[in-house]
Design goal:
heterodimer, A: 99 residues, mainly alpha, 3 helices, 72% helix, B: 216 residues, Four Helix Bundle (Hemerythrin (Met), subunit A)
Chain lengths: 99, 216
């Protein structure tokens, strides 16, 4: 597989999308949407990160090996955060005898 | 001396393409260890924000959203410059490759200047955690905890930026001595991967430190 080669046009479109998303996420942050504020902020940040990784770092156009490496890193990160939060969020759900 | 690809092909590789992909895979594996390092900090931040939502909201409202947004735009621009550097390298256009690398370094330095002026501002407002920390709210300790995360995470990111500028200086030097051509420019791509990754980390830092304090 040869090195991925993207046009400057693609990079400029990705860049403009990133700037637009920065503006959108900042404006939305001024609204008080409760817990949704955080969900939207992290959601938009994830979209932006995907654009940088997929296009600027051309992970989307790389070989299967590299896509597996990237997926592996992300999956392990999700293991870490879901197992950690699974503990902290579920504390107090069940009564503990003697406490 | 005529074929730069043959010169750069190490003996353990069959083809230049195999060598390039190996280098890319190695860099991606390193970046995934970085994901887990920053990921541990993000996880810790999330846990404490769930435990102390008021203190973290108050802490975040101390952030300067204008400087934060400008820095985000600056970093995104460096990513574009880095992508252009790669395009120029692929075309063998060394002059524009060097110009793009210099642009990345200069904008990276501007980012650090803005970041450090924010740090100084926080320090003067007694928001740096530790002995001089002052906060009149009932959640003072939690606000301090927010600033511990803020300084450690943005500080670690700033260290990555400094290393990134060093890498760009090294790549610029190699461009200047003529190491790269349209056939061989893998180090530009690898350095670019690192730079873009540091950009991704900032995108999340912006979302968790600057945005939560806005809706007040």
């Amino acid at each position: 597989m040869t090195a991925p080669r993207l046009s400057r046009r693609t990079y400029v479109f990705a860049y403009l999308a990133l700037l637009a998303l920065t503006l959108i996420t900042t404006l939305i942050a001024y609204l008080n949407l409760g817990v949704w504020s955080t969900v939207i902020a992290i959601g938009i940040a994830t979209v932006m990160a995907s654009i940088v990784a997929g296009i600027m770092m051309h992970a989307l156009y790389e070989s299967l090996l590299i896509r597996i490496i990237v997926s592996g890193g992300i999956i392990w990160f999700f293991f870490m955060i879901t197992l950690t939060l699974g503990d902290y969020i579920s504390r107090g759900w069940l009564p503990v005898p003697g406490k | 001396m005529s074929d730069p690809v043959a010169l750069e092909l190490r003996e353990q590789f069959a083809t230049p393409e195999q060598q390039r992909e190996t280098a890319s895979a190695g860099m991606w594996i390193f970046l995934m260890t970085e994901v887990l390092m920053f990921g541990a900090l993000f996880s810790a931040y999330t846990v404490y924000r769930i435990l102390h939502p008021q203190g973290f909201a108050l802490g975040s409202s101390e952030m300067d959203i204008l400087l934060g947004s400008i820095n985000t735009a600056i970093l995104l621009t460096t990513s574009l410059m880095m992508a252009f550097a790669e395009s120029n390298a692929q075309e063998g256009n060394e002059r524009w490759l060097a110009i793009c690398l210099i642009a990345v370094m200069l904008l990276g330095a501007v980012f650090l200047y803005v970041k450090f002026s924010e740090y100084i501002e926080h320090y003067h407002e007694h928001k740096a955690p530790g002995f001089w920390f002052e906060d009149s709210s009932p959640y003072a300790n939690n606000v301090q905890l927010f600033f511990v995360f803020y300084f450690i995470m943005t500080g670690l990111h700033a260290v990555h930026m400094i290393i990134g500028i060093g890498i760009m200086a090294f790549l610029l030097f190699r461009t200047w001595v003529g190491s790269f051509s349209a056939q061989y420019h893998t180090p530009i791509v690898i350095g670019g991967l690192y730079w873009h990754f540091v950009d991704i980390v900032w995108i999340f830092l912006y979302a968790i430190f600057y945005l939560p304090g806005l809706h007040r």
